[in-house]
Specification:
Length: 157
Amino acid sequence: MEKLLVLGIGNTLLTDDGVGVHAAEVLWKEEWPENVTVMEAGTFTQDIYALFQGYDRLLVLDVIHAEHEPGTIYELTEDDIRSNEKQRVSIHDIDMLDSLRMCEMRCGKRPKMEIIGMQPYDITTWNIGLSDACKAKFDNFVSHTRKRINEIIAEMN
């Protein structure tokens, strides 16, 4: 049976940068099949690739900087990221593509990744909690993610 890891990343101390973590905290409390794991990883470390071991699919929740209205929701694939070197998943210590490569080198295989992101309003102010602009769209972000998780579950079966 294929396995899915839903991973919320970001810094909850920097306003909207924590949107992925906040979404993972909501989704973690919900009932999911045994082949779905929801967790938050905060900010990156050199060892994040170890979390990927044993998973076939990876859904990352994070901020995406694409210069649209705050709260805009994006879905990106690995190919989307590779085709636009300026568009990285986040501003954290190590980018996801490098983490996936490390997982493949260490474990012999790696999950297929996609990203659901939200355009932030503010990721520089020290504040626990989302900006009003992103808070207003947060439920949409979680609903969108929940829908995609269910689509991935159907694809894996």
